[in-house]
Structures are given as C-alpha cells and as structure tokens.
Amino acid sequence: MEQAIEQKTGVEALLQKRPLIISGPCSAETEEQVIQTATRLAATGKVDILRAGIWKPRTRPGSFEGIGTKGLPWLQQARKASGLPVAVEVATGKQVEDALHFDVDVLWLGARTTVNPFSVQEVADALKGVKVPVLIKNPINPDLELWIGAVERVAKAGIEDIGLIHRGFSSYGNTEYRNAPMWHLAIEMKRRNPGMLLINDPSHICGRRDILMDVAQKAIDLDFDGLIIESHIDPDNAWSDAKQQVTPERLGEMIGSIIWRKEDISSEELHAAMEKMRQQINQLDDELLQLLGQRMKVADKIGQYKKDNNITILQTNRWNAILDRAFAKGDKLGLSREFITKYFDAVHMESINHQNKIMNS
Ligand code: PEP
Ligand code: MN
After folding, report:
1. Cα of 241 to ligand 2 centre, how many Å?
2. Which of 107, 204, 229 to mutate to test the pocket of ligand 1 (most atoms within 8 A of CB)?
3. What pLDDT does 340 receive?
4. pLDDT single digits (tens) 59-96
5. How far is the CA of 169 from the centre of ligand 2 (A)?
6. For 338-356, what is the mean pLDDT?
7. How high is the pLDDT of residue 2?
8. Is ligand 1 within 6 A of the CB of residue 178?
9. Is 109 helix (H, G, I), strand (E, B) or coil?
10. Residues within 5 Å of ion ligand 2 by Cβ?
C-alpha cells in the first residue's frame, strides 16, 4: 500500500507526465550532434526525455552499429546543456552497467532484445538492486507472451518503474509500414497491464517521415500515454534510420499539431449523448447478430441440399461472386476492401463449418 501512495521524485515522477514525449536521434553519432539535438529539442518546450542509441542492433552487419561507450559522456553533456534526462537502449548486462555508470536516467529494451528471453534475463540480472525506470519495446514478432515475459523478468529483478513501447511488428512482404502497427496487440497489452505507461513509437512503425503524424495521432486517439519519435539535426544524413527522422523543430511542430483527447468526458450532457449513441451501437450489433444467425440457417439448408445431391462445399466461383458483390456495395457504403475481405472470410468460414457439420451428420 505504501508504495501506491509514495510520492515519486526525479525521473520517476517525470514518467507520470501525460502526454510523455521522448525524442532524440536514432543513434548518437558525434558529441556536437547529440548536444545540438538535445538543446534544440529542449527549446521546443515539447520534449520530456532525450533518447539516443549508443549500441545499435542492426539487422545486417556492416551498417553503423553504434558509437559505443564513448558516446555516454556526450549524453551527460547533453543533459547538462538541455536539462533533459536521457534514455538509452541496453541489450546486455555490460551495457546496463556502462549506462548506469554514466548516469543514464532511463533504460529501454529494444524489439530485438525482447524477442530473446536469454538476453532479457541477462539485462534483468544486471538490474537487480538498481533503481532505474525501464521501458520495454514489443518484440519484433507479434507475440504478446514474449512482451509480457520481458515485463515479468524485469519486474522480478525488482524494477518498479516499467513502461511499454509499441513499435509495431515485423511482417513479411511490402506494406505501407516498416513495422505493421497491429494496434489490437498494443490494446490487448494495455488491457493486461492496466495503469502501466504505454507509449507509441511512430518512427519505427512508419520507417518514413510522411506518415509519422497519422500514426502519432492514431496512438493518441487510442489513449496512449505518449510518444517516442526520432529526431536529428540533419535527418537525411543520419547514420541510421535516416528516412524516418525529423529535425527537432519539426518534431516540436508535430507535437504541437496533435489533437490531444481525453479518455473520458466529464459533462453530464456529453455523457448522455455518448450513452445514446452507445445504445444505438448495441441495438445495431444485436440486429447484425440476429441476421448472421439467419444467414447460417440458410447455409445449413444449402448444406443439406449439397449433401443430398453430393456437391462439394466450397465452390470457388460462387465465393468470388459473393466477394465482388460485397466490394461493390462496400465501396458505396464507405467500407474498406480490407474490412470486407476480413468480414466475409470470417462469415464464410463459419458458414463452411455449419455446412460441414450437416454434410457429415
Ligand atoms: C531504436 O529505437 O532506435 C530501435 C533500434 O528500435 P527497435 O528496437 O524498435 O527496432
Ligand atoms: Mn532507430
């Protein structure tokens, strides 16, 4: 109980600020770059914590793998010059020790670390007896259990201030995003860890500057607690992740133009209006379920007919015709093709299961 009412101080208190904004370069490159980024970010008045990668886990060898321990004193300088606490990614026990030796205020586990329980455990072991906030990025692959496992390992090491960073998930093939957001996974993580800080990382989700704002706004609309966005004094010439970084000033503008929404509304009137619309939604959902039930009954009848006449369940032509019809209708009703496809896939599967039961009964 005492813990719950304990007044936090220092960086722990700062982590309770909403929205919490973290920014800074993907990688620390030079002393000058780190200090300039920090002071220009601080000048925007929109940033709470400076981030900088010191050790960079790169997918392929030969890319810039981070400046290493030599960059840690630069972060001390940057904090002194800007007043911003600093956050660094750690992936090994030695990196934890080095970062703490140079007074890094916040540590984070990267996506390539969260995937590996051996690495997470090594970091957790190095954190035993230490008081420092730790942010944990989601693993590269869409596996919530790994993310939760990392939180548990760090918590077991005695770390009290743990936060989550949603940075999207790797998926095969080209998509609009560098890492698919799969928002439902972040929402489920939040549901399972109520009250735990959850921030969004538009930079690593997007992999490019032009769509950062859309993702940042979406995260805020979904009630995320804040954002971590990469910034660089010369984004195009950054040594890592050049395409996704923005200048400190642009970062300030972006944060300034986000519409910050409240999770809940206090006025009675607004509540009543929301309640009315929610009831409408419930009513419509009930009707949709009724209709789906009826649709399955018809499917059962078709199943019986197919059984009697010895016809296969799946008839590809018919299925294509259903989808084409639905796309055309959906276009007019403002329903995306992605949604129509997902919805009809689910309905179709249920229908096939119904028919299967009948045909094999
Ligand atoms: C980073 O924050 O620069 C980074 C390496 O991110 P991630 O672990 O999300 O790939
Ligand atoms: Mn990066």
Report:
1. 5
2. 204
3. 94
4. 788 889 999 999 999 999 999 999 999 999 999 999 99
5. 14
6. 91
7. 44
8. no
9. strand
10. 26, 241
Ligand nearest the Cα atom of residue 231: 2
Alpha-carbon distance of 231 to 38, in angstroms, equals 10
Task: For residues 52 and 29, give the distance between their C-alpha atoms in angstroms, rounded to a whole number.
Answer: 9
Atom of ligand 1 nearest to the CA of 168: 9
Q: 122 near 116, Cβ under 8 Å? A: no
Is residue 46 in contact with ligand 1, taking CB distance under 6 Å?
Answer: no
Q: Identify the burial level of 183 via C-beta atoms within 10 angstroms of its C-beta, where 0-12 means exposed, 13-18 middle and 19 or more buried.
A: middle
Give the length of the chain: 361
Q: Tell me if 167 CB under 6 Å of ligand 1.
A: yes
- Phi and psi at 218, nearest 5°, equal -60, -45
Q: How confident is the model at residue 306 (pLDDT cuts 50, 70, 90)?
A: confident
**Among 359, 271, 276, residue whose Cα is nearest residue 311:** 359
- Kindly report the protein residue whose alpha carbon is nearest to atom 4 of ligand 1: 110
> Ligand 1 within 6 A of 51 CB?
no
What pLDDT digit, counting tens, does each position of 2-25 carry?
Answer: 445 567 888 999 999 999 999 999
Measured distance CA(246)–CA(238) in Å, rounded = 10
**Ligand 1 atom with least separation from CA of 112:** 8
If one residue of 136, 167, 182 were mutated to test the ligand 1 pocket, choosing by the most ligand atoms within 8 A of its CB, it would be 167
List of residues 6+ apart from 353 with CB closer than 8 A: none
**pLDDT band for position 320 (50/70/90)?**
confident
Mean pLDDT on 260-274: 76
What's the 58 CA to ligand 2 centre distance in angstroms?
10
d(CA 291, CA 295): 6
Contacts of 263 (CB under 8 A, 6+ apart): 223
What is the spatial distance between Cα 4 and Cα 262, in angstroms, rounded to a whole number? 24
Which long-range contacts link 237-242 to residues 24+ away (Cβ below 8 Å)? 238/25, 238/26, 238/27, 238/29, 239/27, 239/29, 239/64, 240/26, 240/27, 240/53, 240/56, 240/58, 240/63, 240/64, 241/26, 241/27, 241/203, 241/204, 241/207
